[in-house]
Design goal:
single chain; 41% helix; 7 strands; Rossmann fold; alpha/beta; binds nicotinamide-adenine-dinucleotide
């Protein structure tokens, strides 16, 4: 076991799949204690089994909860304190995609769902942690996960992109406000990764597989994100395939004291898709 996160106690949201799952595993390998939160219990069960197979169960507690619920967010913090005695890292990966609607065809319920989960959820889980960090004078790191689209835009998926742009602003405000208290707030901006958020067939006819989004039109790549993901165009002689482990490495850095002088910053981990 490595030791980069010795002394760190983290809540990782969205821990049941994709990047949150990969980050949970890396955190445990780096000797972090982790409360793994997800709103899908079966995914946390699978994580528990995987962690047992790695002989890392002693530092893992799972919590089935929803980041849109104030009670669940508060309960996640209580779970960490009860299980591990404190909390000093929030690594917030839970998120949902929209249906790649353009603004003119966007349904109110789709907008409300995505904003509630991605933007309001980011605020709620951060607020619950801050209510513990501040009175207890905890030196802490908050990591929010947005998207390269938050700063580059997209031709569709406006609810998702707006939710991630709002989360960038939320992170900036919290970084300014709480940096003086020793609480750093940074973001990770992934590009397209072939995780369940992009490939879930449960989306049905409104799913991304039916409608790609041309993103980053100024870039040399000039491809839709759907093409990038589904055609496997990442995997060539020159390009490395996007893998959640590439995000997990950034999340370890931001949680660790190696990034102690980084506040209000961003790690963009997108294979260069944002090159303009
Ligand atoms: N995959 C990509 O291409 C991509 C690109 C840019 C940004 N992101 C962002 O990265 C983060 C992680 O995405 P991923 O690709 O690992 O997705 P994923 O779908 O594989 O994992 C997300 C997890 O979050 C959980 N979740 C969703 N809503 C929740 C809620 N309200 N409360 C608790 N848990 C909830 C899901 O059950 C799932 O297990 C998300 O915020 C996503 O928006 C992903």
């Amino acid at each position: 076991m490595a030791d980069r996160l010795n002394g760190k106690i983290a809540i990782v949201t969205g821990a049941g799949a994709g990047m949150g799952n990969a980050t949970t595993l890396e955190y445990l390998k780096e000797n972090c204690k982790v409360v793994a939160m997800d709103n899908k219990a079966d995914r946390l069960d699978a994580l528990t089994k995987e962690v047992a197979g790695l002989d890392l169960s002693a530092n893992l507690v799972t919590f089935t909860g929803d980041v849109t619920s104030n009670a669940d967010c508060d309960k996640a913090v209580e779970t960490a304190v009860e299980a591990f005695g404190s909390l000093n890292v929030l690594s917030h990966f839970a998120g949902v995609m929209d249906y790649f609607s353009t603004a003119d065809e966007l349904a109110d319920e789709d907008w409300d769902f995505v904003i509630a989960n991605n933007l309001t959820g980011s605020m709620k889980i951060s607020r619950s942690c801050l209510k513990y960090f501040l009175p207890n004078e905890i030196i802490a790191s908050i990591i929010l996960v947005t998207s390269n689209g938050a700063v580059q835009g997209s031709t569709s998926g406006v609810a998702y992109i707006a939710s991630k742009g709002g989360t960038e602003s939320l992170a900036q405000c919290m970084a300014f406000e709480y940096g003086r208290s020793g609480i750093r707030v940074n973001t990770i901006q992934p590009g397209p990764y072939a995780t369940s958020i992009c490939l879930d067939p449960a989306w049905g006819p409104k799913a991304m597989v039916n409608k790609g989004a041309a993103i980053h039109r100024g870039s040399g790549y000039n491809k839709s994100s759907r093409d990038w993901i589904l055609a496997g165009e990442w995997v060539t002689e020159r390009f490395v395939a996007a893998d959640p482990k590439h995000i997990a490495g950034g999340a370890v850095y931001l949680a660790s004291d190696e990034s102690a002088f980084m506040n209000a910053g961003t790690l963009r981990i997108d294979g260069g898709i944002c090159l303009g």
